[in-house]
Amino acid sequence: MDGTGTPKAIVFDLDNTLFDHQHSSRCAISAVRNRCPELAGKTLDELITKYDAAFQKLYDAYLRKEITHAHMGVKRIQTFFTDLGLAASPEKVKEFRAIYKPAYREARRAAPGSIETLTKLREHGYSLAILTNGHVKKQNEKAELIGVRHLVHHLVTSEEVGFAKPDPRIFRHVLDRLGTSADATYMVGDSPNADIKGALDAGMRPILYSPMAQGPQRLIFEQQVPVIHHMSQLLEYFAIT
Ligand SMILES: [Mg+2]
After folding, report:
1. Alpha carbon of 87 to ligand 1 centroid (Å)
2. Which CATH class is domain 9-20+110-237?
3. pTM of the full predicted structure?
4. Residue 13 CA, ligand 1 centroid: distance in Å
5. Where are the domains of the chain?
6. Mean pLDDT, residues 154-168 taken together
7. Are 127 and 178 in contact (CB under 8 A)?
8. The pLDDT of residue 63
9. From ligand 1's centre to the CA of 193, what distance in Å?
10. Distance 47 CA to ligand 1 centre (A)
């Protein structure tokens, strides 16, 4: 409740928002670099940039329906090696995966400041939910493992609802679950398209989570959207000390 007694709710994206994907990915690429001699001469930042770029390339190809979702993983690793000027044999791809996957899982953690922030928001009467595009089991497990599942009242996945962000229907579903109105509900997420556009279309109040962004606001779909660079900034935003 705020000072006026109106119930307020905050919905969080999971991947790259409450879940610190960047950290996991960085640790996993670092593990690959340590164990693949041909990568030793490259800097970690260079490898991460190339790996992210490979994802973008393949994701675009997937959106154009040139490749299937199932092929993205292998193709991403092939693209990563090829773009570095290295050979991408099936053995190399297999070796990459065998190192990357467990290192990524091992390094899973909540975004800095998020546990404390969720705890405080709950103490101050906010209803909290996670809204994520993904599988029910996988996303619940991830939220539990990083220590945020018990801090939110609801976790809603696209698999369970049958619609994915930015479809406004998945946002309406989470509003029904929370029992709050759209204009009293905030959506915190890292994706301008999935989280911010979706929230705007549903009449909710968006907040962009972007640790690397400059400035306190960003123009997204012709709207000035507040930006937080660290989860703890939410407490300032909601005037909680
Ligand atoms: Mg995300």
Report:
1. 32
2. alpha beta
3. 0.89
4. 6
5. 9-20+110-237, 22-106
6. 96
7. yes
8. 86
9. 10
10. 22
